[in-house]
Amino acid sequence: xxxxxxxxxxxxxxxxxxxxxxxxxxxxxxxxxxxxxxxxxxxxxxxxxxxxxxxxxxxxxxxxxxxxxxxxxxxxxxxxxxxxxxxxxxxxxxxxxxxxxxxxxxxxxxxxxxxxxxxxxxxxxxxxxxxxxxxxxxxxxxxxxxxxxxxxxxxxxxxxxxxxxxxxxxxxxxxxxxxxxxxxxxxxxxxxxxxxxxxxxxxxxxxxxxxxxxxxxxxxxxxxxxxxxxxxxxxxxxxxxxxxxxxxxxxxxxxxxxxxxxxxxxxxxxxxxxxxxxxxxxxxxxxxxxxxxxxxxxxxxxxxxxxxxxxxxxxxxxxxxxxxxxxxxxxxxxxxxxxxxxxxxxxxxxxxxxxxxxxxxxxxxxxxxxxxxxxxxxxxxxxxxxxxxxxxxxxxxxxxxxxxxxxxxxxxxxxxxxxxxxxxxxxxxxxxxxxxxxxxxxxxxxxxxxxxxxxxxxxxxxxxxxxxxxxxxxxxxxxxxxxxxxxxxxxxxxxxxxxxxxxxxxxxxxxxxxxxxxxxxxxxxxxxxxxxxxxxxxxxxxxxxx
Amino acid sequence: xxxxxxxxxxxxxxxxxxxxxxxxxxxxxxxxxxxxxxxxxxxxxxxxxxxxxxxxxxxxxxxxxxxxxxxxxxxxxxxxxxxxxxxxxxxxxxxxxxxxxxxxxxxxxxxxxxxxxxxxxxxxxxxxxxxxxxxxxxxxxxxxxxxxxxxxxxxxxxxxxxxxxxxxxxxxxxxxxxxxxxxxxxxxxxxxxxxxxxxxxxxxxxxxxxxxxxxxxxxxxxxxxxxxxxxxxxxxxxxxxxxxxxxxxxxxxxxxxxxxxxxxxxxxxxxxxxxxxxxxxxxxxxxxxxxxxxxxxxxxxxxxxxxxxxxxxxx
Lengths: 546, 315
Known about the structure:
The complex is a heterodimer of chains A (546) and B (315).
Chain A: E1 9-20, E2 23-35, E3 40-44, H1 51-59, E4 66-68, E5 72-75, E6 78-79, H2 85-91, E7 96-99, H3 103-106, H4 113-125, H5 129-142, H6 148-152, H7 161-173, E8 179-183, H8 191-208, E9 211-216, H9 219-225, E10 228-233, E11 236-242, H10 243-248, H11 253-261, E12 282-291, H12 296-300, E13 308-318, E14 323-327, H13 334-341, E15 348-353, E16 356-358, H14 366-371, E17 372-375, H15 379-382, H16 389-400, H17 408-418, H18 435-447, E18 453-457, H19 465-482, E19 485-490, H20 493-499, E20 502-507, E21 510-516, H21 527-535, H22 540-545
Parallel strand pairs in A: 3-9, 3-10, 7-8, 8-9, 14-19, 14-20, 17-18, 18-19
Antiparallel strand pairs in A: 1-2, 1-4, 1-5, 5-6, 10-11, 12-13, 12-15, 15-16, 20-21
Chain B: H1 3-30, H2 35-40, H3 46-56, H4 62-74, H5 88-123, H6 128-142, H7 145-159, H8 175-209, H9 212-219, H10 224-261, H11 267-276, H12 280-308
Helix pairs in contact in B: 1-12, 5-6, 5-8, 5-10, 5-11, 6-8, 7-8, 7-10, 8-10, 9-10, 10-11, 10-12, 11-12
GO molecular function (chain A): ATP binding; ATP hydrolysis activity
Family (chain A): Belongs to the ABC transporter superfamily.
Organism (chain A): Pseudaminobacter salicylatoxidans
């Protein structure tokens, strides 16, 4: 690229803060960025690092309480900060556009997909409605959607998440912009769908040569996608450089910590199979879950009723002290099984726990409830916001006795220590804790009853990678101390390969196979397992350092 | 929305009306009113009363009386007014027509004011305009219609003489005079609903304007008008439809009061007169007709809702 060519995007000494009361909360500090034509810059950071604020600043879509310094943001020769609202509206969607994190919320639920695409063409290219509709069909075909004409007439809820994101991408590319900002475009999608969207992105990017700012928290993903990476920590770019160099020889400690926190399947965190010959602790035999019920009208009209299948005759064993991973896309029935095992879903079939048969909620006595605990994905939803930590953690002790001779409060403080939280947290409310700390409280609550099986349902997927690493470390510690068996439900295959003894793969309610973790990558796996594994982005440290 | 859903809803309306008919019939049975006394007067002889009761079937078991009544209703025969001796049906339906005219004008007037007020308040949230609209809504909610009606008649009709204080002229007879007579009743009946609906539209639109898809629309460079009307208002209006349908229930009640104050010969006034005269057949038929109106309006609201929001799958 010739030296004299102006970069497509240049950000110079830009700082941003938000006025909160009388204070200013600093979000971005002296940011310098450039992106040239044809280049992809990856912007990596954890939640709260300011990466989304960067996108808003470039798009000039800031909250009213935003306070900016004198720094400059240029798109080509245009000073974005000097544009009037009308000029900005002319720029947005035509010269700079955006692909959003969650296509389910970025699309208007009551407008046809075609209209949401065509309106951009009508606005910026002066096409008539008929022309724009026609052009829209071509654009949809271009992003790999089958039967684009039909797709134009669909509403967002009638298509899959991947299809929605393709429409959003088609809209972003519609007017051949100079710059596109991708704000975590695959975070809300399944593994396989993400892979396809990334391939589409790579193809379109190479074809159009559009400059791209790719924002993500996923280091592995950025390493595969971007040529250059900037690492953002608390509003500051702590390191920036060529992707390969940055991952091979990270200079800044934060970058090193981030790279180190990414799960690597080759780095096992758990000892070999605890008791290969032991009798299973739990036997799940032909457990099926169906959602929906036959309505009165259906029976009156003698209509056939087709329930929604959550699980179809799932059969598996869990040995004492074993960590069983369950992986699959959303809707594959992972959580449905967890809910059935904890009595939150009705099921057909048999669950045998420690030799005792459980056929339904009524068989789940006090012992079963003490022995089988569950930790949910969102601690915000699973911890009562109006209860103090002391009340939250007192409940399992009250229900299941706890240890004799020790005051309840003392037991709670000990448990807090075990999950590496200060004992002073005991009188706090959940909202006074960070996401990772809240999840530790949820884990503490599960372990207070001394369970023999803990079901972890996507417990780290809402957490940043470094927080995830510390929560996993804690879980492994507790595993060693208590010898409890885990069912670890996740969509993060790299992570599960680190910690599970065996992995169960689920697809649309069916259990595809259960395999030993070492054998998950073997060539004789089921086709779906191989497809799933192929879609996973391996950690950058593996692909780039090798 | 499936045809079977629509059929189911229609069946549900009939079921509701059946229950209402039982209730109405039951209540009128325990009212301290004797149809025979009503017809023959206080001084009638016991024999004459007994003879009339027998001929009217008032001595039959209650369930037989009910069946006879509901059987007539199904065939369009609502019985005979005790007061006037005329058939109930034609008189009530003509009164219903008058009330519906009042109701339709009120709804239109209300929407024409409430929607823009709600939208403006939402766009200028927290600013003076918003506060002013909120202030007006609070006043509107706080004033019952008999107060506003009295004030309106006092100032506009009596003191300033701009509009007629009472009475009704059918629009088909004299459109200008008909409209002049409608203005005050329509305004009075609309005020509370304007307050309701404008607040609803405001809060829904404020929520919608904070969604991701509105942000996306801004970042696509769309015009403010298009974002507001095509993307925002359409989604904000959906809940408002439900409120409007519920307000029709209020409208039916409000119409009774307003018709009484402005001497409009609508169904509300007919019902009031019937209650005062203990004219049981008219009371029964009137309540049934109002219940039917309410059910049908709510059904229509559901249909419109489903038509506007294609995600809604009634089944």
